[in-house]
Amino acid sequence: MSAAAKPLGPAEQPLGTPESAAEPARPGAGLPQHIGIIMDGNGRWAASRGLPRALGHKAGAEAVRRTIEATARAGIGWLTLFAFSSENWQRPADEVRDLTGLMRMYLRSEVSSLAREGIRLRVIGERERFGAETVRAIGAAETATAHGTRLNLNVAVSYGGRAEIVAAARDLARQVAAGTLDPEQVDMATFARQLSTAGMPDPDLIIRTSGEQRLSNFLLWQSAYAELVFQDVLWPDYDAPHLAQAIAEFARRERRYGLRVA
Ligand code: FPP
Q1: CA–centroid distance, residue 83 to ligand 1 (Å)
Q2: Which of 46, 58, 161, 240 has a CB 3.0–4.6 Å from the CB of 51, allowing a cystine?
Q3: pTM for the structure as a whole
C-alpha cells in the first residue's frame, strides 16, 4: 500500500509554479532524508526555444548545480540524480556523445567546488560503459570529494533499476554456488547490501520533472515506500523554489508504510 496523500486545500498552489513557492524548506519539519530526482525535459526545453538538444542538456547541467546547492542549503543529507539511464544508450550517437562529454566536463569543472562545499560525490550505474577516460574522471572526483559530510550526492549513470536487481541476484547466486552463502540467510537486508546503494538510506521522496508520471527504471528497489512528486516544470528551469515546493508537498503526505492509521 502506498502512503495516502491529504488533499490539497484550495489556497495551496499547484506544483511547478516557482512564483507561488513562498514556503522555504524548514530543516527537521517533515524533511526528507534522501531525495531522488528524475531530471526530465531538457529536449522539450530546447525545442521550445528552437535550440539543439545539446543546449537543453547544457542548461540542464546548470539546473543540476542550482539543485545541489539548494538541497545542501535545505539541510538534506542525500540526493540522487538520474543523469543517464541504461536506455539512454539507444539515443542517436551524437546525443550520447554530447551527454557523456557534458558529464565529463561537469565532473572536472565542479570537483573542487563540490569538495570545498563538503559534498561527497558517488556515481552509481555501469560507469565502465563510458570508457577509460570517463571512468578515470569519475574515480578522481569521488576521491577528491570523499571527505564531504554535508551532502551525499549520487549521480546515476548508465543506471537501470532492473539491471541492478538482476546483478544483485546474480552475485548472491554465485555466493550460494560457491558455498559461502546459505540461501536461507538471504533476506531483504542481505539483498540491499548487494545494490549500488548499499549502506545508503532509501529515498523518501522521488521527484520527476516535465509533467511525466513514471519511474522509468529509477531506484526500483529503493523507492518501495518513497513519496512521488511530479512537477510540471522542464528540468533546465528547475530552481530552489521548485525544490522547496516538492519538499512542502512531501511534508503534507501521510506516510503509512502499509500500516493502518487509527
Ligand atoms: C532528460 O531530458 C534528461 C536526460 C536524458 C539527461 C539528464 C542530464 C542532465 C541534466 C545534464 C548533465 C548531468 C549532469 C549530472 C552534469 P530529455 O532529453 O529526455 O528531455 P525530453 O523528454 O524533453 O526530450
Answers
A1: 6
A2: 46
A3: 0.88
Residues counted in the chain: 262
**Ligand 1 atom closest to the CA of 212, numbered from 1:** 22
DSSP string over 223-254: TTT-EEEEESS-GGG--HHHHHHHHHHHHHB-
User: Which of 44, 57, 127 has most ligand 1 atoms within 8 Å of its beta carbon, as the pocket-test mutant?
Assistant: 57
Beta-carbon contacts of 66 under 8 Å, excluding residues fewer than 6 positions away, are 238, 239, 240
Residue 41 CA, ligand 1 centroid: distance in Å? 7
206 confidence band (pLDDT: 50, 70, 90): very high
Interval 79-102: pLDDT, tens: 999 999 999 999 999 999 999 999
C-alpha–C-alpha distance, residues 184 and 180, integer Å: 12
* Cα of 99 from ligand 1 centre, angstroms: 8
Cell of 137: 574522471
Which of 76, 60, 59 lies closest to 24, judged by CA?
76
